[in-house]
Amino acid sequence: MVRLRKLTYYVAASIDGFIADPAGRFDFFPIEADVMAAMNAVRPEAVPTAFRAAIGIADDTPNRSYDTVLMGRHSYTPGLEAGLTSPYAHLRQIVFSTTLTSPDPAVEVVAADPLGTVRKLKQEDGLGIWLCGGGTLASHLLPEIDELVIKQYPLVLGAGIPLFADAVPAHRFSLEEARTFESGAVVLTYACPSS
pTM here? Predict the structure, then answer.
């Protein structure tokens, strides 16, 4: 039996379920040392390439959980504006956008059919697939999301971009783990029972 790769939506969120403010900013989420150390031990590949050395992740550190990252245009744009055309150079990078052209040969821009693309990716050999954002893309990909890993920070935004930005049918997940941290953050891991 062929084992399919798993799609994980791994993202930071506020207590009230927002991954960004109404303007799409997410730089207010705290970088808590305790959360960072725990998550980087399991998912070092989720740290952008430009910051890995600064926090002690060597260039030759193997990817542990993912070898592919998926982004919506709004998730990709902040790095692009900062001059990071290939933010996760240590991963296969796919950006879903109908308006963007690839500014870097290492970034694949896909204009249509996110679900079909993910279904093909799942058939390939490799590690897991990381959906790093955003909420609209997550809504499209919900039928293929096998795992949610939510770094929930003790912030309330009141408005913004929710975990799932479009209306979606009810989709049940089961809580696999809840890790609490001294900083007040909680990392919640949910699995899709049908995966």
Answer: 0.94
